[in-house]
Write a structure and sequence with these properties.
Helix content: 40-55%
Number of helices: 20
Cofactor: heme
CATH superfamily: Cytochrome P450
Distance between the termini: 79 Å
Family: Belongs to the cytochrome P450 family.
InterPro entries: CYP450_71D, Cyt_P450, Cyt_P450_CS, Cyt_P450_E_grp-I, Cyt_P450_sf
Radius of gyration: 24 Å
CATH class: Mainly Alpha
CATH topology: Cytochrome p450
Organism: Manihot esculenta
GO molecular function: heme binding; iron ion binding; monooxygenase activity; oxidoreductase activity, acting on paired donors, with incorporation or reduction of molecular oxygen
Largest sheet: 4 strands, mixed
Length: 518
């Protein structure tokens, strides 16, 4: 018997021992040696030495993937070649190389690699993130115009107002001298907003679906053993990956089926006419029945898209909100400045609405800086080359997996002064934004595959964060000092904090505690 001692669980490399028969191990070794021989004959980007059978998997053990890849890039360059099992991989770690990939050669790298988790949970790649070709172009257009366009995002403002009000009340009830678990409360807030926007109401199975969403996103990076050796289908069974995903799928499909059927009945009752309170399922069903789509969509396609929106939209917004709060607690000067801006701007109002947000320029800088230092997906969802091309003088063969390390790019001292420090003022009086134009700052990606839900995601960060800063003063429990706050990362669906954010909330009363400046 042989043993393969490398696997990736929940996105983080871990050692496991998986037995193989001698013949299976021999086949793996021959195939991997063949791959290594083929790659050595090409003008590939530089990279660390590759070992038989595992390639560079050993290089990724010992720390979080985005940290390890950044360190390797410092040694081998911003365009680096790795052999991850059977999968040839290129890692991009600089703004210049990212621009080459996502602008100059964007058409070459506009597709996704085959990943087992996405195939099963996204209904055979018919969502938005992993779909291809004309179908993907159509669904992306629908997403930008009908589902998550600016007008549609604004129409969800009453939902955000209502759920933020619920959040504030729950904090008041849980307040006093006991710490409030803001990690849980912010996650529940974000998932409630996304549920109501997508499906019209909260789910009874909301907690279970959040758990599935987190695991699904964490597996979408293609770091599981079955994805690293795609030709070896027996690994899908040995690692229990395929049975686990199929079990998740059956549970998820039952929930989504119930939601879609409820909406079909509602649509039938109003005879196909659009309504003012259309949620995202309503929109997709209406478009399906319109007969105007170039690529007709099925019920499974609808389930794939709404699941995509939920899985992608929940953890990313909540994680960013939590990181922003944690960074401000750790930097009292920044916290004070943000609260003063908000409290002066609203001048004693009982609550903050979305119209107020536009005046809160420092808050927007805090959010931008949070996304630079803590991008929710530090390694963007992988792309794949659909043909051979040249980048930076090196050959990138067809079907090469490409990983963009936006965490490393956001901390590149060539573009950012004091890159490891949290300084919101660095965004004052400059035009850097989230639109994927400045490649030193691409927390949402760039090019054809840029995140289509930026407006929706930001709205779910800005309003809750502004209200949390306005309605409460915050302090750490016990004798903790700001510099004692643990900022250790945990790699999962997104990169959040390892420890839950526990803070003491002190209600703020505008009428008695603050006099607006005149």
């Amino acid at each position: 018997m042989a043993s393969l001692a490398f696997s990736f669980k929940m996105g983080t490399p871990t050692f496991v021992s998986i037995p193989f028969s001698t013949s299976s191990s021999f086949t793996l070794k021959v195939n991997c040696q063949k791959t290594l021989a083929e790659t050595s004959a090409k003008n590939l980007p530089p990279g660390p030495r590759k070992l038989p059978l595992i390639g560079n998997l050993h290089n990724l053990v010992g720390s979080l993937p985005h940290h390890v890849l950044k360190d390797l890039a410092i040694e081998h360059g911003p365009l680096m070649h790795l052999q991850l099992g059977e999968v040839p991989t290129v890692v991009v770690s600089s703004a210049k190389m990212a621009q080459e990939l996502m602008k100059t050669h964007d058409h070459v790298f506009s597709q996704r690699p085959e990943i087992l988790a996405s195939r099963i949970l996204s209904y055979d790649h018919t969502d938005i993130v992993f779909s291809k070709g004309d179908y993907w172009k159509q669904m992306r257009k629908i997403c930008l115009t009908e589902l998550l366009g600016l007008r549609k995002v604004k129409s969800f403002a009453p939902i955000r107002d209502d759920e933020v009000s619920n959040l504030l009340e729950s904090i008041r009830l849980a307040g006093g001298s006991s710490p409030v678990n803001l990690t849980e409360k912010i996650m529940w807030l974000t998932s409630a907003i996304v549920c109501r926007a997508a499906f019209g109401n909260r789910w009874e199975d909301q907690k279970a679906v959040i758990s599935i969403a987190r695991e699904a996103v964490s597996l979408s990076g293609g770091f599981d053993l079955a994805d690293l050796y795609p030709s070896k289908e027996f690994l899908h069974v040995i690692t229990n990956m395929k049975p686990r995903l199929e079990k998740m799928y059956l549970k998820l499909d039952k929930i989504l089926d119930n939601i879609v059927n409820e909406h079909k009945q509602k649509l039938a009752n109003r005879k196909g006419e659009p309504a003012d309170d259309e949620d995202l399922v309503d929109v997709l069903l209406r478009l399906q029945g319109s007969g105007r789509l170039e690529c007709p969509i099925t019920i499974d396609n609808i389930k794939a898209v709404i699941w995509d929106l939920f899985a992608a939209g929940t953890d990313t917004s909540s994680t960013t909100t939590e990181w922003a709060l944690a960074e401000m607690i750790r930097n009292p000067r920044i916290l004070k400045k943000a609260q003063e801006e908000i409290r002066q701007s609203v001048q004693g109002k009982e609550t903050i609405c979305e119209e107020d947000i536009q005046r809160l320029q420092y808050l927007k800088m805090v959010i931008k800086e949070t996304l630079r230092v803590h991008p929710p997906l530090p390694l963007l969802i992988p792309r794949e080359s659909k043909e051979t091309c040249e980048i930076g003088g090196y050959e990138i063969p067809e079907k090469t997996k490409v990983i963009v390390n936006v965490w490393a790019i956001g901390r590149d001292p060539e573009y950012w002064k004091d890159p490891d420090k949290f300084i919101p003022e660095r965004f004052h009086d400059n035009s850097i934004d989230f639109k994927g134009i400045n490649f030193a700052y691409i927390p949402f990606g760039a090019g054809r595959r840029i995140c289509p839900g930026i407006s929706f995601g930001l709205a779910n960060i800005e309003l809750p964060l502004a209200n949390l800063l306005y309605h409460f003063d915050w302090k750490l429990p016990g004798e903790m000092r700001p510099e004692d706050l643990d900022m250790t990362e945990a790699f999962g669906a997104t990169v959040g904090r390892k420890e839950n954010l526990q803070l003491i909330a002190i209600p703020y009363k505008p009428s008695s505690s603050y006099q607006a400046s005149t």
